[in-house]
Amino acid sequence: MSQASRELPPFVDYVVLPVVNVITAFIAAGLVVLAISENPVEVVKIMIVGALGTPEGLGYTLYYTTNFIFTGLSVAVAYHAGLFNIGPEGQAAVAGIGVALVTLAFDGAPWWLVLPFAVAAAMVFGAAWAFIPAWLQARRGSHIVITTIMFNFLAATLIVYLLVNVMGKAGSMAPETKMLSDATRLPLFGTLLKPLGIDLGQSPVNPTFLIAIAACVAVWLLIWHTRLGYEIRTAGTNPQAAVYAGIDPARIIIISMLISGGLTGLLAVNEVMAVQGRLLTDVAQGAGFVGIAVALMGRSHPLGIALAAFLFGILYQGGAELSFDIPKITRDMIVVIQALVILFAGALGNMYRPMLERIFARRPDRRAEETEA
Amino acid sequence: MLRTTIVSLSMVLGLAGAAFAADAQPALLYDVGGKFDKSFNEAAYRGMEKFKAETKIDYREFEIQNDAQREQALRNFAKKGNSPIIAIGFSQAAAVEKVAKEFPDQKFAIVDMVVDLPNVRSIVFKEEEGSFLVGLIAAKASKTGKVGFVGGMDIPLIRKFACGYVQGVKATDPKITVFQNMVGTTGAAWTDPVKGGELTISQIEQGADVVYAAAGASGLGVLQKAAEKGKLGIGVDSNQNHLYPGKVLTSMMKRVDVAVYKAAMDVKDGKWTGGINVLGLKDGGVDWALDDNNKSLITPEIKAAADQAKADIISGKIQVHDYMADKTCPF
User: Fold this and answer.
1) From B198's CA, which of A58, A225, A316, B66 has a CA 20 to 30 Å away?
2) pLDDT in tens, A175-199
3) Which residue of A lies nearest to B63 if distances are taken between CA atoms?
4) Do A174 and B90 touch (CB under 8 A)?
């Protein structure tokens, strides 16, 4: 993680700082909205009500959140090992191929029987696509940023080739596999919860969301409560010291990238087995890149990532509602608003740190003095 | 409290929806390429604007950002009582099928794909016929004996364009070489004029002097670079001759505007029908563009040959191969 000059209390670091950043971003976005002569308050209201105000809207928000949690965790695990994984887009695409192969092979079988195999295939295929850049980094010193970006394009090429020439539905114009049968397709929460009187409409949120929450807990346990997690953090903070401590950095690079790719792969279960019910050419649809912002904003901590993913879910779903209701706000405007949030919460994430340090740093300082005494 | 607000709000919306459903309240759903791509989606936009100008009836529209929004947008339109709801692009098929089943009383239309439901009008074009004609014109206009094709993505639809084009070129002069390149493998392939331009330069450096673009907004880069290098481009979907007057040889027009306008008008006039509309040269669904901007490039000889081929295709004397028929291109 970013090295602070002075330690902030965790509450300030993980809650106050991100909140201040997001508020700044919204003020900046509000100015943009003003510039096209729309009312910023109205815009925020539509976004919030659209994303959280109706059960169906909330369902869409949580669907986006699911994807962003997976890619955010993926980027974070690699980041703890000192690696910048830009490849979630490609890893998710290849995982999509894996999920499609498994679900199509078992097509017709009940979904709860197929789900464990689909999850396994997603993780194995995602990890396999991350393995090659990891190996090149560990053994040949090829920079992982470059190789993972290249592997995104390779994955896109592979998936288009497979869908057009090998796996595609016969006689169809669209590059996509055939639709899964209803029995095999992962049911949406809207369908599952209807008997209980909870109506989520047709929103795409589905049991994969629970897998995402479980993944958050698993990553938290892994990074802070296992020996491997300790090794990952050590190698990430200082590879030389790690060697001195008997840790093989090359091994850690490969293992953490495998975990990273596997986590991203789970996104394919959400998309292929549940939401779309078939394999399309673009599996991650930008969620891989959003994951980088989510991990930065969440300070690579699963709780922070879950919250940041939820915020981006709100931005995505609220943004869609916004362009429905105010035609003047086009999808490009929404990208601008999202970009401002990424700018202030991610890239300029430490802008307020010196100021907050002056306000809050007294406490840890005193604690330090006490230990010295 | 909140719940009552939501319930009363949805009741109001529901009532409003019911009131609107009787009249034409068109809605338009663009594909990822976006509304102002100067090409495919923009043609749909123009058709709808024409409808609006003539009837004074406003319409709703939405540009999608990701696949999950397709169903969401269609359902949103349907709930608000829009009809017809016109979806642009083959990628919308699964979403249209699902939402059209949920709202059987409302009318849907989809361009470039067939959805077999009674309340859906499927509009597909014979792109190969129009591409054959511009291939013929390219072959006649080429001095180097080499022509190019820049497609968006290597998918069946684009192969259909390419195959018709190659057939048109080879039917005119079998010795002409045709270079083919695709812009990309992701959705960005349709919105990347820089890459389209680079591929054009590469084809020109290999000797091509006419380049046909079938790549959505990426095609703008093709036409621009061809014009800059003093060569000729061929536009697609909309009439793009005006973009670089005298530098765009012609455009393969796919009259999405006419189809969209007609779908909205038919609902307004109560003449709407479901089913499959296949639009080729005969129906004016595809054609090549001739206007003041490219008049000087089209010699009487080229025009005569193009008109003759058009008549022959309509009469069935020339059979243009449809890539989708057997998923192969024999040329």
Assistant:
1) B66
2) 889 889 999 999 999 888 888 888 8
3) A331
4) yes
Res B40 pLDDT > 90 = no
Number of domains composing chain B = 2
Cis peptide before A364 (omega within 30 of 0): no
Shortest distance between the Cα of A261 and any Cα of chain B, in A, equals 20
Within 8 A of A151 by CB-CB distance, chain B residues are none
A63 CB near a chain B CB, below 8 Å?
A: yes
Tens-digit pLDDT profile for residues B154-189: 888 899 999 999 999 999 999 999 999 999 887 788
Model's pTM, two decimal places?
Answer: 0.82
Q: CB of A227 within 8 A of CB of A83?
A: no
Domain that holds residue A117: 64-298
Mean pLDDT of chain B: 89
- Residue B331 counted as domain residue: no
Going by the DSSP 8-state scheme, the letter that residue A165 receives in this structure is I
Of the candidates B263, B229, B234, the one whose C-alpha atom is nearest the C-alpha of residue B249 is B234
Contacts of A54 in chain B (CB under 8 A): 6
Residue B144: DSSP 8-state: S
Is a pLDDT exceeding 90 seen at residue B230? yes
State whether B261 and B304 are in the same domain.
no
Residue B229, domain CATH: 3.40.50.2300
Tokens of A236: 């990430």
| Nearest-Cα residue of chain B relative to residue A327 | B61
CA atoms within 13 A on the CB side of A14: 13
Residue A38 resides in a domain:
no
Residue A189 lies in a domain: yes
Does B105 lie in the same domain as B26? yes
Q: Which SS3 state, helix, strand or coil, does residue B232 take?
A: strand
A contact test, residue of B8, B66, B157 with most A CBs within 10 A: B66
* Range of the structural domain that residue B201 is part of: 127-254+286-326
Residue B35: its chain A contacts at CB < 8 A? 330
Query: What is this model's ipTM?
Result: 0.76
